[in-house]
Amino acid sequence: MPVEQIPHQQTGSLVAGNRLLAPEQRSGQARPDRANSLTCGHRACRGCGEALGARWVVDAALRATGNRLIAVNATGCLEVFSTPYPQSAWQLPWLHSLFGNAPAVATGVAAALRATGRADVRVLGQGGDGGTVDIGFGCLSGMFERNDDVLYVCYDNEAYMNTGVQRSGATPAAARTATTQAVGTEPGNVFGQGKNLPAIAMAHEIPYVATATVADLRDLEAKVTRAMDVQGARYLHVLVPCPLGWGSEAHDTIRLARLATQCGLFPVLEAAYGEVTAATRIRRRVPVEGTCAGSPGTPTCSGHASGPTWSPVSRRRPIGTSPGTACWPHRHPRRWPDGDPVRHHARLGVEPDQSDRRLARRATRLPRPVSALCRRVPRRRERP
Ligand SMILES: Cc1ncc(C[n+]2csc(CCOP(=O)(O)OP(=O)(O)O)c2C)c(N)n1
Ligand code: SF4
Question: Please, what is the angle between helix 137-145 and helix 102-115, to 10°?
Fold first, then answer.
């Protein structure tokens, strides 16, 4: 893999070295007094984005609250790899109950703190995308609607990783998982399904909603700090690549998260009371096909068995019997380099197959790209 130059804006991250900054500007992780909330010794896979994201989120929340924080965890990889009984890698009060009730338990902890007059102690709920977007969704919506004083963080690795990479409501279209397989005429996860949870959280008009990725840890840290300044329900959605489920190399976790934002698939933004207040500009736009290795196993593209230009990050071997290369835009005609798959294959001199033609026809009916999220902001309602 070619060496990538570290962009200027990353100066000060751990990548470039905090030593380039004045001590007061250095990240929480670079401080000798950091909380180190998720200690070494846990059993996450090498390159796990969720472990990295959780460590930065909880450390930042601990710093913002003066170490007065209680964490509540949904069942999932984060819970399983950090607390193999009777051990725990957590350095703070931490609770686990069930897969689907973390927001309700967090609400209960916040209510108990309020009832006992402990306004100084704050609550953090956290879980994977399955626990948040699917089974825990009702509890989360109730937590939003009641405006309970909890910061809930979803670590989105785009599938149920802990139980073997099954599809979740956050799995992107065309992705291959154990339950959306890379076989058949239209392989992978189907289009037009799934949930955009940041947008749903915004629709609840809670005080704070943000998205972030592990590619920009300073941004993640800043958002957690800002969220901790706010009272009421807050939601943070963090993209955390999973080498095991995505079939990527452990050392590509950060790069894949960065590519997901640079190609516009994962918009990074902040919103208050249902209105977008800030969005990270894409400085160097990359085509979606550059993110091919991302998202729980992308389906194979038989038309590109000897394809000319594939992603520098896509080193994954094809799945199933098809001798293709992983290819996201194959399933997303609007993002094809030449407008649609038929034209694209024609230019390459490859015979398009039936599914290519069907995809080209569907191009006009596909949902808008996720980057359109910013334009779908509901009208602001006045708050007292
Ligand atoms: C009610 C219930 N159903 C199913 C399970 C099995 N289970 C445990 S973790 C998990 C998947 C978690 O996926 P996700 O929330 O996306 O977190 P990840 O492991 O990807 O971090 C499942 C299905 C369970 N513990 N409880
Ligand atoms: S399966 Fe994925 S989310 Fe789970 S520990 Fe491994 S890398 Fe992390």
Answer: 30
140, 161, 162, best to mutate for ligand 1 pocket (most atoms within 8 Å of CB): 162
Give the residue, 307 or 25, on which the prediction is more confident. Answer: 25
The pair of structure tokens assigned to 97 is 């109950």
8 Å CB contact between 194 and 173: yes
Name the residue among 301, 305, 358 with its Cα closest to residue 330: 301
* Beta carbons of 303 and 345 less than 8 angstroms apart: yes
Q: Which domains does the chain have, with CATH numbers?
A: 8-279 (3.40.50.970), 288-365 (no CATH)
Collect all residues with Cβ–Cβ distance below 8 Å to 298 and sequence separation of at least 6: 174, 175, 176, 188, 292, 326, 327, 328
- Closest C-alpha to ligand 2, atom 3: 242
Q: Does the structure show a pLDDT above 70 at 292?
A: no
Residue 135 CA to ligand 1 center (angstroms) comes to: 9
* pLDDT grade for 17, boundaries at 50, 70 and 90: low
Q: 156 to each of 17, 117, 119, how far by Cα in Å?
A: 27, 34, 30
CA of 253 to the centre of ligand 2 (A): 11
For 278, the enclosing helix (H) or strand (E) is strand 275-279
CB atoms within 10 A of CB 38: 26
- Contact residues for 202 (Cβ-Cβ < 8 A; gap 6+): 209, 271, 274, 275, 276, 377, 378
pLDDT grade for 318, boundaries at 50, 70 and 90: very low
Q: Using a 6 Å CB cutoff, which residues line ligand 1?
A: 50, 75-78, 99-100, 127-131, 157, 160-163, 168
pLDDT 10s digits, 107-131: 999 999 999 999 999 999 999 999 9
Task: Say if CB 198 and CB 156 are below 8 A apart.
Answer: no
75 CA → ligand 2 middle, Å: 13
Residue reference for tokens 């990359």: 286
- Give pTM, 2 decimals: 0.78
Token match 């599938």: residue?
159
- Supply the residue whose CA is at minimum distance from atom 11 of ligand 1: 160
